[in-house]
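Two entries, shown back to back:
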Amino acid sequence: MVEPGRSRNRKDVGNIRQMLYNPMEESAEESLFDPQNEGSNMRLSTKSEYAFLALIVLAENYASGYTKIAEIISKKDIPRKYLEQIMLVLKGGGFVRSKMGPEGGYKLSKAPSQISLAEIIRLLDGALAPVLSVSEYFYESSPIEQSQELMNIFTDIRNYISEKMENTTLQDLITG
């Protein structure tokens, strides 16, 4: 749900989410992205949502060169200061480059087909795993480790999410 006085392009965010997950039971999908589910590692942050929207614009303009931040803002209705912070993180992660001046802006550092969703989420949000004790990159001990059955279930969930995100690129998002 969008906060009062705050506009977001929910259709685009919904499309990203739809690409990330095969059709599942509605309640399972809703729980993955429930704003009340603050403690879950599986929740896609607003920062990641906005980053993906900005990256879609850059992917669409990849062959055209640099894209001005104002164009990204106008197409995806992202708050300027928030977008500037996101772009700095993406630049630091090696996913975008910038150029100053009248012909400047931002562009992808690699082809859209070479940037997976998993890379972006790991940069901005950390682990893809539902609990850190099954994370391959961000492992931390957790109480779940007391039950091998739960570890198996959460490992399966991690594997599904990881496979889907590793195999979905920005190119996939713009070509449908």
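entry 2 starts here
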Amino acid sequence: MTGEIQITIHDHQKIHWVDPELPRRAAQLTTRLEGERQTGETEQTLQIAIVLFDDEQMIRIHKQYLDIDETTDVLAFNLDDDFEVSHDESEVSRGALLGDVFVNVEQAQRQAEEYQHSLGRELAILVSHGVLHLLGYDDADQRGRDEMMRKSLLIADHEWLASYTINKDGE
């Protein structure tokens, strides 16, 4: 991928301090490792906004766009109708990726506690999951969920994110 990747971080929650470099790096890794396979060589600028929310904000957007009146961990909205992704590596997609990934930091904290890993690791998983949606992945069935989780875990465990995702006790 020869095009530029522009990632903007908007932290609208007050629950936890999040180093903006963590979601930026998780999105960059996902687009670089998966995006090149998906989009081929492109001169297009890839633009992604990562928005950090709390439960209240996530419930509001979940209700507004999906008519579901409850919180969730991550939502992704592909805003570029011309961007088409093929999972066939021989096809090259056209158009710039322009999308938003909304991550609920409050839900991420609960999930990190449940899965017994750091908040940083959970945020990396969720950001990567959202970016994968922007790249055309779908988790509507078990096979898609498994594939997306495998890829998100690979990103979260990448050495470039280690200083953000490892617990203080080394886990």
